[in-house]
Write a structure and sequence with these properties.
The complex is a heterodimer of chains A (249) and B (287).
Chain A (H helix, E strand, L loop, with lengths): L21 H11 L4 E5 L3 E9 L13 E5 L2 E7 L1 H22 L5 H14 L11 E9 L2 E7 L5 E4 L1 E4 L3 H10 L7 H15 L7 E9 L7 E2 L2 H21 L1
Antiparallel strand pairs in A: 1-2, 1-8, 2-9, 3-4, 4-5, 5-6, 6-7, 9-10
Chain B lengths: L25 H5 L38 E3 L2 E6 L2 E7 L2 E3 L2 E4 L5 E5 L2 E8 H21 L7 H17 L6 E8 L5 E6 L5 E3 L2 E3 L3 H4 L1 H7 L6 H18 L7 E7 L2 E4 L12 H4 L10
Antiparallel strand pairs in B: 1-4, 1-7, 2-3, 2-11, 3-12, 4-5, 6-7, 7-8, 8-9, 9-10, 12-13
Chain lengths: 249, 287
């Protein structure tokens, strides 16, 4: 019995003497090690963006998605273990569909977030289960307007103006804090998101692609992938900005 | 109602309807019991049984298997580049014109429209099914959208499945739209799952009144204006002869550009045709 957990990390039903549940912490680590994802709440909607490392040159472009539709008015960007993420997304879709058939109206973002958090939390309660190694950035647009939530493996969920998960989350959060999110439009945010992801990825040097979605007036208040040409424009702008800052150095 | 006289004889037991009491009470005298087929006064077994009094062997009686609020005919034709669907906006409760602004045409997705006649609540249920189907399709996010042919196929299965349960959805549905490759699709499904595709379809009364006109005047490459004129004429004919229709119609177009459901409108009508005054004059054998 030696090492980091020293016997208290074998199941999610055992606390360590200083009050930690190590399995939950480890699940969070799986998320922290994932490639970076970010969400921005703008004045007219939400933008989700995620970098995806290209693990092989043989990989088909834009395969293995990390941004999924949950309903027309909701989408999730998953960070961490992708297969776990898919389970969470499927559950979210089920909740959305159930809500719609029961109440006859689309599920409000707050409710969807609450239900997802409860679902994630379930896996922290039994020794026979493993907490999901995934966190979901949830973008919704309902009667109360756009909203961005982050649901974590522990079952914790918060509503954000902007947030990030994954390896470079701290760097991204620093960038987001500098921005005036309340005055940004989604079109501008798409470019900003591309810039941020390119910037925080700089040292790494590995090839990556960006997946981005939005839900705003431009998309008809429907969660959808950012159109290819808009994304390409944003990436071009991001690369130009990068080169510019290189020249200054 | 007065209590039925019951015997207190130990042979029969208390509370059992039996022979007349030896000493008639005032209640009995006031209202002497009458024998019925189900309860003979002799206390003998009933010799005939009213089926409605006996609980059926296969569960409670089903009361939902008749239409209540209904829509009448739906008409649809193919034309160059699309499909046009038309129907009135009435929800009839028997022959009462109960709901006069029911929209019976829905947009399923950018390429498919569905119109329905028959039980309106069943159509609302089908609408929900189609909404779910379309949302699921949207969620898949693979850049492929369900085409009218797929929606049609789905509906044929739903309708046939329900008739297989002896609990049919009481509708005639018309599915129209344009496939991804530009092919124009038009088909109809009946309440028991019977289905076919054609260049023009009409459900209900329209199958008799409108389709002869379609056979004469419809062609797949006719212009949109001609198609609309044809449909208006057919609607008028249906309105003249179909008691359960009103003069408030809707026309929807499904083309490569999408589905456009038009605003309700009324048609010019003329009721002083001589043939209308004596409708059976030239109809030999009619009265």
């Amino acid at each position: 019995m030696s090492g980091i957990g020293t016997g208290y990390d074998l199941s999610a039903t055992t606390y360590s003497p200083d009050g930690k549940v190590f399995q939950t912490d480890y699940a969070q680590k799986a998320v922290d090690n994932s490639s970076t994802a970010l969400g921005i709440k703008c004045k007219d909607g939400i933008v989700l963006a995620v970098e995806k490392l290209v693990v092989s040159k043989l990989l088909v472009e834009r395969s293995s998605r990390r941004i999924h539709n949950v309903d027309r008015h909701a989408g999730i960007c998953v960070a961490g273990l992708l297969p776990d993420g898919r389970m969470v997304v499927n559950r979210a879709a089920e909740e959305a569909s159930n809500y719609k058939s029961f109440y006859g109206e689309p599920i409000p973002g707050r409710v969807l977030c609450e239900r997802l958090a409860s679902y994630m939390h379930l896996f922290n309660l039994y020794w026979s289960m493993r907490p999901y190694g995934t966190a979901g950035l949830l973008a919704t647009y309902d009667e109360d307007g756009p909203a961005l939530y982050l649901v974590e493996p522990s079952g914790v969920a918060h509503k954000y103006h902007g947030t990030a998960v994954g390896k470079a989350r701290q760097a991204v959060k620093n960038e987001l804090e500098k921005m005036k999110l309340g005055q940004l439009t989604c079109r501008e945010a798409v470019v900003e998101a591309a810039k941020i992801l390119h910037k925080v990825h700089e040292e790494d040097g590995k090839p990556f692609e960006i997946e981005m979605s939005w839900i705003c007036d431009d998309s008809g208040r429907v969660h959808q992938r950012v159109p290819a040409e808009v994304l390409a424009e944003a990436e071009a702008a991001a690369k130009a900005a990068m080169e510019e800052s290189d020249m200054e150095d | 109602m007065l209590p039925r006289p019951t015997t207190h004889s130990k042979a029969l037991g208390p509370g059992v309807a039996g022979p007349e009491l030896a000493v008639a009470t005032s209640a009995v005298l006031d209202r002497p019991p009458q024998p019925t087929a189900q309860r003979p006064l002799s206390g003998a077994q009933a010799f005939s049984v009213d089926p409605s009094l006996v609980e059926s062997a296969d569960g409670p009686r089903q009361h939902t298997q008749y239409p209540y609020v209904t829509g009448t005919s739906v008409l649809a034709v193919k034309y160059a580049g699309g499909v046009m669907l038309a129907c009135d906006t009435l929800g009839a409760y028997g022959s009462t014109k109960r709901y006069k602004s029911l929209e019976r045409i829905i947009r399923v997705n950018a390429r498919t429209a569905v119109a329905a006649g028959g039980e309106i609540s069943d159509f609302q249920y089908i609408t929900r099914l189609l909404e779910e189907l379309a949302t699921d399709d949207y969620r898949t996010d693979d850049g492929i959208e369900l085409g009218p042919r797929e929606v049609f196929s789905y509906l044929t299965r739903v309708m046939y499945n329900r008739r297989g349960k002896m609990d049919p959805l009481w509708n005639s549905l018309v599915v129209g739209g344009v496939e991804a490759d530009g092919t124009v699709f038009l088909g109809t499904v009946g309440m028991i799952g019977t289905h076919y595709t054609d260049s023009h379809v009409a459900t209900g009364f329209g199958a008799h009144l409108a389709r002869p006109m379609f056979r004469e005047r419809q062609s797949d490459d006719m212009s949109e204006a001609d198609a609309e004129a044809l449909l208006r004429d057919a609607l008028r004919v249906c309105y003249y002869r179909d008691k359960q229709s009103i003069n408030k119609f809707q026309v929807a177009k499904a083309t490569g550009e999408g589905v456009a459901i038009g605003k309700p409108f009324a048609l010019e009508t003329k009721w002083d045709y001589k043939a209308f005054a004596a409708p059976t004059k030239w109809a030999i054998g009619a009265w």
